[in-house]
Write a structure and sequence with these properties.
The protein is an alpha/beta fold and 367 residues long. The chain is built from ten helices and 13 strands. α1 runs parallel beside α4. The radius of gyration is 20 Å and the shape is globular.
Length: 367
């Protein structure tokens, strides 16, 4: 059952990472988690790949030049079941607050642009990967799959998460709306790259995209943002030419209501801080009375979405394997499930069905 009665207080972070230093960034994040909880927030949202920081070098120079950052970035990326993640879980539990953290996830040797959702009891609600990294991001990160497009049923509302230009993918948005999303966490890097030459990387266009997400889905958007500080410029800009490609600031934490309205005064784009808003889910039915894209305003007889929500793998084990290989696979599966199991409650897309508890393996939900 989907309810529209909660009135949560939410927090959106606008801050720089401590670049390529996971431990220091986590220290900084824990302080912000405590601050948001002290101010009464039920939820705090962090930017895209906040830990250990967005890999700006991929946009500023050749792959050969950028190779100097690869090993350090990999070493400072987090595993879902690692000690660094445990620190974030302990902070959420200590402060009794739900945390959505954008981070670089290390899965084996590959990296993924992930958002982990941690409950106020410190338990992992879910972990999802960016479905399709954008442009040169694909030189660093792997892809997610349909199991990463998920909305979680929480006491303060049905919450979903996406990263950056995932909000430009029309069918991705519709898949999220179809799960009766009420609060949407959008995690972004700063809007300071190639400005003002590339408008699609700028504030005006991307703010419009997030406002439209709120209006189109008749929901609340909690938009968190990275910003570029002097440490970032010093690390990634070793020539005057590179310095011309990226600017200081670019932060844009925002809140948008179901009618597209702003819910808080923005911080200056060069200033770090936490933005707060009080949400009232009773506003959603008013907006949906006019146009519910997955309800009375839909025309499924004309247009519909085929949504493959299954988890994918590059390897499918079939019969004929040696007993030793089969035993190794079984052992690996047991260890992975015991270390990385997640419990999440997911409401099926149909509004009339009851919630279903599904099990995940440490990065999302397993169908």
């Amino acid at each position: 059952m989907v309810e529209y009665t909660a009135k949560p207080k939410v927090a959106a972070v606008q801050a720089a990472s401590v670049w390529l230093d996971a431990d220091a960034t986590i220290d900084k994040s824990i302080a912000m988690i405590a601050q948001a909880a002290a101010n009464g927030a039920d939820l705090i949202a962090f930017p895209e790949t906040h830990v250990p920081g967005y890999p700006w070098w991929i946009w500023l120079g050749t792959p050969f030049w950028g190779a100097q950052f690869v090993r350090r970035f990999h070493e400072n990326s987090l595993t879902v079941d690692g000690k660094r993640m445990l620190r974030l879980r302990e902070a959420a539990k200590k402060n009794k607050i739900t945390v959505v953290m954008g981070y670089s996830e290390r899965g084996g040797a590959s990296l993924y642009m992930s958002q982990v959702i941690i409950g106020p009891d410190g338990e992992l609600i879910g972990n999802r990967r960016k479905l399709k990294p954008t442009h040169v991001e694909r030189s660093v990160f792997g892809e997610g799959d349909g199991s990463d497009l998920v909305v979680f049923d929480r006491p303060f509302g049905r919450m979903g998460c996406l990263n950056c230009w995932e909000h430009y993918q029309t069918l991705t948005k519709f898949a999220m709306y179809s799960q009766h999303e009420q609060i949407h966490v959008s995690s972004w890097p700063s809007q300071s790259l190639y400005q003002p030459a590339v408008r699609t990387f700028g504030l005006k266009v991307n703010e419009s995209a997030m406002r439209m997400y709120a209006v189109e889905g008749q929901l609340f958007v909690v938009n968190s943002s990275n910003l570029v500080d002097q440490l970032c410029l010093d690390m990634f800009c070793d020539t005057p030419e590179k310095r011309q490609l990226i600017e200081l600031g670019g932060g844009w934490a925002r809140f948008f209501g179901p009618d597209g309205g702003d819910l808080a005064e923005p911080l200056p784009h060069t200033e770090e801080g936490i933005l707060y808003a009080d949400l009232d889910l009773r506003q959603i039915p008013l907006a949906k009375a006019a146009a519910d894209p997955v309800g009375h305003y839909a025309r499924s007889d004309v247009l519909s979405l085929r949504f493959n929500r299954s988890k994918t793998s590059p390897v499918e084990h079939v019969g004929g394997a040696s007993s030793m290989a089969a035993a190794a696979t079984a052992t690996e599966g047991k260890e992975r499930n015991s270390q990385r199991s997640l419990d999440s409650t997911l409401l099926a897309p149909e509004a009339s069905v009851d919630s279903e508890v599904l099990k995940g393996d440490g990065r999302g939900l397993r169908n």
